[in-house]
Design a protein that fits this description.
Length: 144
């Protein structure tokens, strides 16, 4: 094999390997999409992959703190049962091994828009959602 072919082969292999490495932003987005799509499409394993096993969900109801255990949340997702949820990532901010994300979930049947504030940490080479606080607003009748 001549030198030109060896150089091309090295560049090709190096380029292929480089395209497989995810950036932190891509990895965070992937974790968030596991949560969004897993919940919407009835894929509890994707949601479990996104959530830390000790995650809890927090909200305020009637001026009182409401806590929902993450395992109860994922346990309520039925394999293959789709929900009428449309989610989108609003923002991601991260530094080193810590991140925060804002997600909106449109629930047309409930006529609500949920806003999730998620904290993530990267450990053991994976990003995990470790905390979720959420709120919602009812959207006006004109928003059909």
């Amino acid at each position: 094999m001549n030198l030109k072919k060896v150089i091309v082969l090295i560049l090709l292999v190096g380029g292929i390997q480089g395209t497989h490495a995810q950036t932190d932003l891509e990895a965070i987005t992937s974790t968030l999409m596991d949560y969004i799509e897993g919940t919407a499409n009835g894929e509890p394993e994707r949601v479990e992959r996104a959530f830390h096993s000790e995650l809890n969900l927090y909200s305020v109801r009637n001026d009182s703190l409401s806590v929902w255990y993450g395992q109860d949340y994922t346990g309520g997702i039925t394999e293959g049962k789709k929900s009428n949820r449309i989610g989108r990532i609003v923002s991601i901010d991260y530094e080193n091994d810590a991140a925060i994300a804002k997600i909106e979930i449109l629930m047309p049947n409930a006529k609500r828009i949920y806003t999730d504030y998620l904290m993530l940490l990267k450990y053991q080479a994976r990003w995990k959602i470790i905390h979720k606080s959420y709120t919602y607003v009812n959207y006006p009748e004109s928003h059909n």
